[in-house]
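Subject: sequence -> structure tokens, single chain

Hey, anyone have a minute? Need the predicted structure for the following. Not urgent.
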Amino acid sequence: MNLKEIKLKKLFIPLYWFLFNKPIPNFFKKGFEFDFKEIKRSWTIVKWELVRRMAPRVSAIIGVALMITINPIYAGVKYWISNLFTFVEGWIDAMAGLLNSHVSRNVGLKVKVPQKDNEYIFIKSAIGTILTIIFIYFCSKYLLWFLPESIYNEVLNPLIYIFALFEYLTKLRYYMWLSISRSYKIELNGKAQLFYALPTAFLTPLLLWLFLHKLNLGIEYIFLTSAIVGIVQWLLTEIYFRKNLNNPTINNLPNNTN
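Reply:
Had a minute. Here:
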């Protein structure tokens, strides 16, 4: 064994020893320590998170296929609108991330009502969402003139923006409630995730098929579908949390679980 191999062996033996023998409790708490109890506890959230994140992918595949089958212009308009509304989705991502951290922090500090600031942050985010949608509409009107006329006219359809307003406001409300179940009311997390995933995966393709294929309605009904699904998700979550939020907490995570 050469000198280099000896040095490497001396370097890695203490690391293995620390990883598996854990001489100092929680020494690698935010690092590499194998704590199967913590892994199992985190998995209770992650498994439902995976289900929720997969649902939009499934509905998108079916939805785009229906749009192309009925009218390829629908897919083009949906593409442009989706890209424009990424600015609106920024409000949702920002609010969700902030509330996840904020509620988790309050749980760590043992605040009596960890979600006490959620309503305030939701209202501020809702105002920003409304103003952003209005701003996008006027920017589209004056800056997207280079698009083909068939796509440009549909991008400026006011109904699309009205339906989008319902969709994004209900999403904000949904994520406001979801943040409570990630680090505080863990027992509510599974159903909260399913309230998002199931309508997205099943109701979205069903409504698109009904509106576009069966009834042969216009492109604005694609966005009406998103609004209806958002309202269903919000109502289920709102009712569920209002009914169960004050029940004794069965399980919560002591650390941040964003």
